[in-house]
User: Which sequence fits this backbone?
């Protein structure tokens, strides 16, 4: 596979939730297809999205703290497409008037769930059961996810580490009984994923027909209260007694935060002396890469530097101050993945933040393009610093952003800058700044 940067191309970062939609949130139906048309007509080559996983109100509906590293967000399912397929009628569509500017996740989740339950009831009587069963048998992660979500519903969304002991510890006989007793509810969550990926594959095929490739987003860590951690407790740093994290992820104090960032995700057991742990951990990552490569064309890995060194914070610490650096898996992980998956992986490495020699060495070894953010470059005004993200410092093997999902829009960013930064920017770009986003 050729490098992403062998040919210059451009695209737009826009998560699906931000697209216009008639039911309170963007979806995989008309709004996504129309956005692809817009990209194609604008001469773009890429559409970058954020993680597609199901979100939770407990974590602010963040796609970076999902119940699954593999599943799709049912809120993105297009209800109009379900009408076209005869799974629901127009009477099943929500009549609620939503804001065109903000997503009311609670309201959207309730109304979509009602419509999807109606679709499931129809599907039970006259759906394509053969295709559905093929999906459930050939999608390795989906049955564990559906079981997890059925149990979440039964235990009123309590974290899995608070479930009854035999379920928490995954006693085989107990889980076998639950699968039989909760079959209908489990099948419903399988149906959600069946419909999501059916609609997603249709969208991906349409994007390719218009010459557009999709850049997906893969968070380095997963949420503790997820099907992945519950099903693979052995590969995470968890207490054997409680199932709670022993150490959690984050980054140390820096220029932006005196106490650092304590994210709270459980850490992987990269440094375990037990070979069976490494085998299971590498196997889980292989399945993760295999799954996302079937879903998108290019993968942006969030917090890539964590594969070189990661910040380990004791779980009982309230801030990230009292942590320590640990050695990550390095290039060995990616060499193993490329050997298993048959070649070079189409990865963008999010290498922002404090970059050490270990991170630079890892990037050089794997050869994936890193990232640059223009807003950061103009904020620094350090034109003589080769590490600053000003245009004349940019590298060939690099993906350049005006700003990412963590940044403000260019116009809002511009309006909040000091006169010194605005003056430097105007002179650097030889502009009056009245159309700064175009500049």
Assistant:
């Amino acid at each position: 596979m050729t490098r992403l940067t062998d040919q210059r191309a451009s695209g737009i970062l826009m998560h699906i939730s931000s697209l216009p939609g008639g039911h309170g949130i963007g979806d995989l139906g008309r709004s996504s297809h129309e956005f692809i048309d817009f990209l194609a007509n604008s001469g773009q080559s890429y559409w970058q999205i954020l993680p597609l996983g199901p979100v939770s109100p407990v974590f602010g509906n963040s796609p970076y703290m999902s119940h699954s590293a593999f599943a799709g967000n049912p809120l993105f399912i297009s209800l109009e497409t379900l009408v076209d397929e005869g799974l629901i009628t127009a009477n099943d569509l929500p009549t609620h008037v939503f804001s065109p500017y903000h997503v009311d996740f609670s309201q959207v989740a309730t109304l979509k769930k009602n419509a999807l339950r109606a679709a499931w009831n129809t599907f039970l009587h006259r759906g394509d059961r053969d295709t559905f069963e093929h999906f459930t048998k050939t999608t390795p992660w989906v049955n564990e996810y559906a079981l997890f979500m059925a149990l979440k519903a039964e235990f009123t969304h309590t974290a899995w580490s608070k479930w009854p002991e035999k379920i928490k510890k995954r006693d085989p006989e107990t889980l076998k009984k639950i699968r039989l007793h909760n079959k209908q509810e489990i099948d419903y969550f399988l149906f959600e994923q069946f419909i999501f990926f059916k609609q997603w594959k249709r969208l991906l095929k349409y994007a390719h027909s218009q010459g557009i490739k999709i850049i997906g987003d893969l968070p380095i860590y997963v949420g503790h209260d997820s099907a992945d951690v519950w099903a693979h407790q052995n590969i995470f740093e968890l207490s054997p007694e409680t199932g709670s994290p022993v150490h959690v992820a984050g980054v140390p104090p820096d220029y932006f935060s005196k106490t650092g960032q304590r994210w709270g995700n459980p850490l992987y057991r990269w440094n375990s002396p037990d070979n069976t742990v490494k085998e299971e951990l590498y196997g889980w990552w292989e399945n993760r890469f295999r799954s996302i490569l079937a879903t998108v064309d290019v993968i942006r890995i969030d917090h890539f530097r964590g594969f070189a060194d990661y910040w380990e914070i004791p779980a009982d610490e309230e801030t990230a101050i009292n942590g320590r650096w640990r050695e990550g898996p390095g290039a060995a992980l990616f060499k193993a993945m490329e050997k298993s998956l048959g070649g070079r992986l189409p990865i963008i490495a999010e290498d922002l933040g404090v970059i050490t020699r270990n991170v630079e060495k890892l990037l050089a070894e794997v050869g994936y393009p890193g990232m640059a953010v223009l807003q950061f470059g103009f904020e620094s005004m350090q034109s003589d610093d080769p590490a600053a993200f000003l245009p004349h410092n940019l590298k060939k093997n690099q993906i350049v952003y005006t700003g990412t999902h963590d940044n403000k829009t260019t116009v809002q960013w511009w309006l909040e800058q000091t006169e010194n930064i605005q003056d430097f920017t105007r002179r650097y770009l030889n502009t009056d700044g009245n159309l700064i986003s175009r500049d």
In short: The mean pLDDT is 94. Residues 49 and 167 are 35 Å apart (CA to CA). The chain is about 40% helix and 10% strand. The longest helix spans residues 183-209.
